[in-house]
Amino acid sequence: MSSTSAPTPLIGVIVCSSRQPRVCPQIAALVTSTIENWTSTSSDSPPRAKLQLIDLAVWNLPMFDEPTIPSQIKNYCDYAQPHTRAWSQEIQKYAGFIFILPQYNWGYPAVIKNAIDYLFNEWRAKPAMIVSYGGHGGTKSAGQLRQVLDGVNMNVAETMPALAFPDRTVLVKAAKGDDLNLGEESRIWTEERKDIYKAFEDLMALVSKTL
Ligand SMILES: Cc1cc2nc3c(=O)[nH]c(=O)nc-3n(C[C@H](O)[C@H](O)[C@H](O)COP(=O)(O)O)c2cc1C
Fold first, then answer.
1. Distances in Å between the alpha carbon of 16 and those of 38, 68, 71, 210?
2. Cis before residue 166, ω within 30 degrees of 0?
3. Which GO-annotated molecular functions does the record name (predicted)?
4. Mind listing the pLDDT tens digit for each residue in 86-118?
5. How many CA atoms lie less than 13 Å away from 104 in the CB half-sphere?
6. Beta bridge partners of 131
7. Per-residue pLDDT tens digits for 154-205
């Protein structure tokens, strides 16, 4: 018998650091497992989504090199560069995005601004949530990215979880890209994991309005 239920929305989890070594993939794994393993106490039907990683280090886009302003492009075939056409097709696939965002010098890494600037209509009206991390949680980085996402007309979830490295030992480990032991058994960021799920609920409420 065929099912009439709506398809599960596909959400892109964007790894916004490209340096080697780095901890961003570990933070992305923590966010993904928090969402996937959350046991809702407040809802019988918690939001469902398929989460898929988009690693900017793997995409390795060159510095923006399109001749036309992306907001003027209505069809991805009209981009001049093959890497832009591929990036456009990738971003078109998703109903919404989770940005996993470090803070660099009180701002966000250049690699994510470059990746955003390549496109416009692919981002427009799509819901997003931002999870930042850093010595103090990366809130300056998150605030700046939020402004940019507003600029490409995305709908950003109000809840913006900020993961502060608990002490200098973890900060030094993160800088070296060491294993931060963020697995299921870890007690780190217990409260912040609630924020992650709240932000995800915000995100999925925005996604449901677009389907
Ligand atoms: C270029 C650079 C600048 C940084 N600036 C900040 C900063 O402004 N605030 C902060 O809390 N941490 C800062 N850090 C430390 C990062 O939070 C930490 O290295 C983290 O591991 C970066 O994420 P990544 O490993 O995924 O790249 C900076 C790190 C780098 C590489």
1. 24, 25, 22, 25
2. no
3. FMN binding; oxidoreductase activity
4. 999 999 999 999 999 999 999 999 999 999 999
5. 15
6. 100
7. 999 999 999 999 999 999 999 999 999 998 888 899 999 999 999 999 999 9
Domain positions in the chain: 10-38+47-210
Q: How far apart are CA 91 and CA 87, in angstroms?
A: 6
Contact between 196 and 204 (Cβ < 8 Å): no
CA distance 136 to 103: 9
Distance, CA 116 to ligand 1 centroid (Å)?
20
Q: How many CB atoms lie within 10 A of CB 89?
A: 11
CA of 113 to the centre of ligand 1 (A): 16
**Cα 106 to ligand 1 centroid, rounded to whole Å:** 9
CATH topology classification for 10-38+47-210 = Rossmann fold (3.40.50)
Q: What is the mean pLDDT of the chain?
A: 95
Tokens 């030094």 correspond to 172
Q: What is the token pair recorded at 181?
A: 């032991």
Look at residues 56, 200, 203 and name the one whose alpha carbon lies nearest to residue 117.
Answer: 56
Ligand 1 pocket test: pick from 103, 105, 139, 165 the residue with the most ligand atoms within 8 Å of its Cβ: 103
Q: Pocket around ligand 1: residues whose beta carbon is below 6 Å from it?
A: 17, 19, 22-24, 102-106, 134-136, 174-175, 177
Confidence of residue 2 (pLDDT cuts 50, 70, 90): very low
